[in-house]
TrEMBL record:
Alphabetized SUPFAM superfamilies for the sequence: Thioesterase/thiol ester dehydrase-isomerase
Gene label: fabZ
Species this chain originates from: Thioalbus denitrificans
Residue numbers annotated as active site: H47
Record EC number: 4.2.1.59
GO molecular function: (3R)-hydroxyacyl-[acyl-carrier-protein] dehydratase activity
GO biological process, one term: lipid A biosynthetic process
GO (cellular component) term, any one: membrane
Name this polypeptide is given: 3-hydroxyacyl-[acyl-carrier-protein] dehydratase FabZ
This protein's record includes keyword Lyase: yes
Family: Belongs to the thioester dehydratase family. FabZ subfamily.
Alphabetized Pfam families for the sequence: FabA
Length: 146
């Protein structure tokens, strides 16, 4: 999936879209996506001015977006005006190394199970083959309230 296809599957937009491309997807099993981290990211001027590091919560958000892509591909649907998936839980989050401008983050997520509209995944963010972060992620399908 190129960025245009990613945009069709996720409701996120700049500056909060954190997936640039999907390079592997097996619906119902796993997905591998790429996030190219650049110095132009809006959070770097404040995190940190003389030592830019991608915030850990945004690494987790990138993993959650990859999980959302896997969910939509597994269900074989596109988001609509009536349904949304919320990031509802994170367990066992660990950070092993910082992610810096110029890094290419490889987001690897695997489907674990779903029950009553709650989907559970495991995810790893890697840079140059080294683990940067990992977590167990849950998202829930909900109807949009108007």
């Amino acid at each position: 999936m190129d960025v245009h296809e990613v945009l069709r599957h996720l409701p996120h937009r700049y500056p909060f879209l954190l997936v640039d491309r999907v390079i592997e997807c097996t619906p119902g099993e796993s997905l591998v996506a790429i996030k190219n981290v650049t110095i132009n990211e809006p959070f770097f001027p404040g995190h940190f001015p003389h030592h830019p590091v991608m915030p850990g919560v945004l690494i987790l958000e990138a993993l959650a977006q990859a999980c959302g892509l896997l969910t939509f591909r597994t269900m074989d649907v596109l988001p609509d005006d009536d349904t949304i998936f919320y990031f509802v839980g994170i367990d066992n989050a660990r950070f092993k190394q910082p992610v810096m401008p110029g890094d290419q983050m490889r987001l690897e997520v695997k489907y674990v199970r779903s029950m009553r509209g709650v989907w559970k995944f495991t995810g790893e963010a890697k840079v140059d083959g080294k683990l940067a972060a990992s977590a167990d992620i849950m998202c829930a399908q909900r109807e949009m309230k108007r």
